[in-house]
């Protein structure tokens, strides 16, 4: 890098109040279009998720994320570092071993943020991109999903206006853990993706 370019970038960082090497914060999400109050949508979402084998845990704030993930790992006897989506790197993860970036084959657990969720269908919505590497939602056996309560939608058609102008390479709607009943009619989880999906529903902010 030339000295003039470095000087210019240094002034930009200074204007933004950032230091060299600081992670880029994710862009703010637009307000959700929701029908009914948040409690109704959360209850409907919880009911739908239960039907598809997804567990849900409500957190009062993002400050509880690290503790909730640590407790999940302990319950399932998981000890390795967690693959953490870059879009969550700015949260507090003290005491938790994380690898920021897309999940790799040795990762058993990935933690990512959902763009939204549809209460009527129990669908979790993800925007593939640098902040949410798509393989993190499909490669590890355990997918932990951070979801803001403000991002709950009543119906699927309410999602499309929110996607206008959003960065992302693809939109993924996830209905639960990977499963199949192709062999003998017995339902098995983890056929082509995670065998467990756990939603961390956060009350306070995006």
UniProtKB/TrEMBL annotation:
It comes from the Bacteria. Coiled coil: none annotated. InterPro entries: FTHF_cligase-like_sf, LUD_dom, NagB/RpiA_transferase-like. Transmembrane segments: none annotated. Residues 108-202 form the LUD domain. It holds the Pfam family LUD_dom. PANTHER family: LACTATE UTILIZATION PROTEIN C. This is LUD domain-containing protein.
């Amino acid at each position: 890098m030339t000295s003039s370019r470095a000087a210019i970038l240094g002034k930009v960082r200074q204007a933004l109040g950032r230091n060299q090497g600081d992670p880029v914060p994710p862009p703010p999400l637009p307000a959700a279009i929701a029908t009914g109050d948040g409690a109704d949508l959360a209850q409907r979402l919880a009911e739908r998720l239960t039907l598809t084998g997804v567990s849900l845990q409500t957190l009062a704030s993002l400050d509880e994320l690290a503790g909730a993930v640590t407790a999940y790992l302990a319950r399932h006897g998981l000890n390795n570092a967690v693959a953490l989506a870059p879009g969550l790197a700015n949260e507090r993860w003290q005491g938790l071993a994380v690898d920021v970036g897309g999940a790799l084959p040795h990762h058993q657990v990935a933690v990512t943020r959902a763009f939204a969720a549809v209460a009527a269908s129990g669908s979790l919505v993800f925007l593939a991109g640098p902040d949410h590497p798509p393989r993190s939602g499909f490669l590890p056996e355990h997918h932990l999903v951070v979801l803001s309560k403000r991002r709950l939608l009543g119906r699927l058609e309410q999602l499309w206006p929110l996607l206008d102008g959003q960065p992302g390479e693809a939109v993924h709607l996830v209905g639960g853990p990977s499963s199949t009943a192709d062999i003998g009619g017995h339902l098995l989880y983890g056929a082509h993706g995670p065998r467990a999906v756990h939603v961390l529903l956060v009350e306070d902010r995006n």
